[in-house]
Amino acid sequence: MKGIIIENISNLYKVIEPIKKELYTCLARGVFKNIGITPVVGDMVEFSEKENIIEKIYDRKNYIKRPKIANITQIVFVISMKNPKPDLLLLDKQLAFAEILGVKSLIAINKCDLVEEKEVEKIFNIYKSVGYNVVKIQANEKIGIKELKENLQGQISVLAGNSGVGKSTIINALFNDTIAEEGQISEKNKRGKNTTTLVKLFEIDKDTFVADAPGFSTFEISEIEKEDLSHYFKEFVPFMEKCSYIGCSHINEADSECAIKRAKNNQEISESRYNNYCKIYEELKNIKKW
Q1: How, if at all, do strands 208-212 and 200-205 pair?
Q2: Is 8 helix (H, G, I), strand (E, B) or coil?
Q3: I need a labelling partner for 189 at 20 to 30 A (CA). Which of 48, 123, 231, 255 fits?
């Protein structure tokens, strides 16, 4: 039988058969360990119904090391407008990472009711103008959840973002049920307490899954080469061929020589995004030095 792994606890794998929607708890053949492959959530597998043994792991479309998940088609980047405040530097790192993976990006702005509308619109317009799909939600009140759900159809999505932004609340709102444990905000530093301890796929509709995953906000940015970083800021790409020099860093060159800097000065590229590009570039540069 064929199925998809939706949960992994220790050496046990919960596999859902997509037609009858039956759930099986399976072990994996020892041969996988011998060849250095471990089944992960999101893997399409072939398993023995009688023995409940995973016999084969199909080729992966993509794979993320931390948290371990495979075959995703979309990442939903959740930011909150308050408690915790928006971390746009982290968001821009994550968006670049999604570009490398070649998966769709969806930005969900949560807790919109806690700040003035103009603050929400500023962030909304920055990323909408780049070409990203952006939705505004109030997960506690289930406002905007219908639009979010429409954008999840036919996708295997994973929610990413800092603790406390409302990922588990969003999942509960999507299912109109308490299926994910919601965290609390620390009064001391206004940051969230991470309650998700494992990766789990939840089936919303046919061929539509969503996952909450711990540790997604701490992926290794070092996977990006600094020379390639500008290719993953997709609004930069149309201007890059107009730079005077091949290998332009878009940082140290004069404005007259760099089309990216000219576009930023002409407000064709967001100053916020450009400044974050410079910060990430320097971070990658220091990593390579170390």
Answers
A1: antiparallel
A2: strand
A3: 123
